[in-house]
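Apologies for my clumsy wording, but are you able to produce some protein sequence, whichever is easiest, and the tokens describing how it folds?
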Amino acid sequence: MTTSLSLADARRIALVAQGFGKRHPARVGASQLRRTVDRLGLFQIDSVNVLTRAHYLPAFSRLGMYDRTSLEREAWGPKAARRLFEYWAHEASLLPMSLHPLLRWRMAKAERGETGYAALRRFASERRAEADAVLARIAADGPLAAADFENGASRSGWWEWSHTKHALEYLFWAGRITTATRRGSFTRLYDLTERVIPADILALPTPDATTAQRMLIERSARALGVATAADLRDYFRLKPGEGDPAIASLVDEGVLEPVKVSGWSQKAWLHREAANPRPIRGAALLAPFDPLVWERSRTERLFGFRYRIEIYVPQPLRTHGYYVLPFLLDEALVARVDLKADRQAGLLRAHRVTLERNAPPDTCERLLLELERMATWLDLDGVLVGDTVMAD
């Protein structure tokens, strides 16, 4: 028998599963940060830096003011201290080390040329010698960026940058190299995987693809609370042929329970350990790539909030702004804010605030508190709010 859930219950379940509804700790230590990334399963990485890099924001949304250098140590610190690694999960991502074995099937597919874009796949066959040459140079010289190959082209006969970059991406997808650290603002330095990932992680057994995919879907279900099949697959970018058998297996095991969510046309599943919480209080600004909102159709189903990022839309055609963060207030998305960290002026600029029709009377007041908190966290001196408008 399929259980029925109201939309309000589904929303609360999803918010608690994502780590919302708790007071921010007075002091955020490494253990709270690790629990957050373990709960979510990954932090998506993005290069846009108009505010701050996207991977820093989900922990701030859930924990408040934490030390960003603690995340950097977890991701790119000394090998013995690392707790996170980079790989393609939900796009480029930082993931807990415990998930490394669960993605080795994807690495193996990439190495065989069975996944990735066409230019990448060719390095598994006719261009394999080029990939091996890139790998050999990294083995000999240590961590290198793509530009390091370009800079040496005239002296050592390396191919044009784009070819070398594709070779590096092939080796990265295949798990032969990974990110050792980041140089300057965001440049990835590649090194051999065995010189970056701790030996005890590499020694963990590698599950077969079917088992790994089932475990990834289970992690997705924990992080989402209640979700459709498309939601569950999207979290770690699994194809229907990979994710759907895993869902069926977890239903048979009793890990996932079929549910009907009011207003949803699709079937949904509830993780057996999902909390059925009381009403939620809290406020948070969400990165465009936060797992609560990154699947835009799910955001509409849960919150009635149509959200699109407009970075690539020409400025005159943008509706809400360039880098727009949804504002979560209690159990609703009630506003969106076009933000920029103006580091030269020492200001967090909210160029435009758009209030939803359901925004409660205290929205602006509570939003300002969050903006002030964010400004302090980003080492800015204050907040400057521009136009505040009502959504059409």
Notes: The longest strand covers residues 332-342.
